[in-house]
Design goal:
single chain; mainly alpha; hpI Integrase, Chain A; 3 domains; three-stranded antiparallel sheet; two-stranded antiparallel sheet; 15 helices; elongated; DNA-binding
Length: 331
């Protein structure tokens, strides 16, 4: 933390103004660019991923974890030296057999660090010349059918607190296509049962919460869980652990994953299921129910890019498979 020891000058109108030399000295203090860059990220998960990727680059260059001085030395290279070094690093990533998406993510983290340093005046170049690896934009959006999800709902024993909690989580994952991080971060105060609204911290939206409408079955499930929980503090987590090891603690994303997977197994679902696969299933079922109305379904999925939903729809319809069959019938 920087301590401000400013000397003030009293102007004619009694305004206090810091002396210019003191401000210049403060501005010229060398920041820890790595630390400040990571601190600029909002999500703890995002911070962790950036640290991991940038650490990999400096381990390649120096054989050690990054230190502030090493970051400064890298950023003070001339543009040609820096680009040559990063190109060698990119080649190393490829030779290590990493997937194109991983290579691109690590390069993107490095570019982001350099862009930040450029923005704060600690670097005179960028890595715009470094190109990403080409990857095929395919996503496996397969999941389970609504009938199979009904089996999962039936497995939850709603005569127990655990069953009430798990049932409410399942309804949110399906009815609202929520991500497990969005479910984990919910607090009691985020829920308005009267208006059937839930305020969630959506992916990529910083600290800005957005409202989603709830179905009547989901409202009933949440109300049943809250009555069982007997908690009224709006700051307390909506979903808590019921394990003896950590009772009352906020349910983690890992715990939600384990709950979903265990329920799927109990329901006889052979496919390994995760909260995100339920989201895939929900979005695909919504496209099926609306005859592929991606604009309407975007309100559910909250994908910022409509092209992502088009991938879901293409996978649902299997256009390529249909064309292949048509061609086969011609010969």
């Amino acid at each position: 933390m920087v301590t401000l020891n400013l000397v003030f000058v009293i102007m004619d109108d009694s305004t206090l103004v810091p002396k210019l030399p003191d401000l210049l000295m403060l501005a010229n203090q060398t920041p820890d660019v790595l630390r400040d860059f990571v601190a600029d990220k909002r999500s703890p998960k995002t911070k962790s991923e950036y640290v991991k990727d940038i650490k990999d680059f400096f381990q390649f260059v120096t054989g050690n974890n990054p230190r502030p001085q090493q970051a400064v030395e890298f950023l003070e290279l001339d543009r040609f030296q820096a680009v040559a070094l990063v190109l060698r690093y990119k080649q190393n990533l490829i030779e290590r057999g990493l997937k194109e998406a991983t290579v691109n993510r690590r390069l993107a983290a490095l570019k982001s660090l350099v862009n930040y340093a450029f923005k704060v005046g600690k670097c005179a170049w960028t890595l715009a010349d470094i190109k990403s690896e080409r990857i095929k934009p395919y996503r496996d959006t397969t999941g389970i059918k609504p009938s199979e999800f009904k089996q999962m709902l039936a497995v939850s024993d709603r005569t127990t607190n655990r069953g009430k909690r798990d049932y409410a989580i399942l309804r949110l994952l399906w009815d609202n296509a929520l991500r497990r991080g969005e479910v984990s971060s919910l607090s009691i105060g985020d829920l308005d049962l009267d208006s059937r609204r839930l305020w969630i911290l959506g992916k990529g939206r910083g600290s800005q919460k957005e409202a989603v409408a709830l179905s009547i079955p989901t409202v009933n499930a949440l109300q049943e869980w809250l009555q069982a929980q007997r908690e009224t503090d709006i700051n307390k987590p909506l979903f808590i652990s019921l394990d003896k090891a950590s009772p009352g603690h906020r349910l983690s994303t890992t715990s939600i994953y384990k709950i979903v997977n265990a329920i799927a197994q109990d329901a006889g679902i052979t496919k390994k299921l995760s909260p995100h696969r339920i989201r895939h299933s929900s979005v695909t079922a919504a496209l099926e129910a609306t005859n592929g109305d991606v604009r309407r379904v975007q309100k559910l999925s909250r994908h910022s890019n409509l092209n992502t939903l088009m991938i879901y729809d293409d996978n649902r319809l299997s256009h390529q498979g249909e064309i292949t069959d048509l061609l086969a019938d011609l010969v």
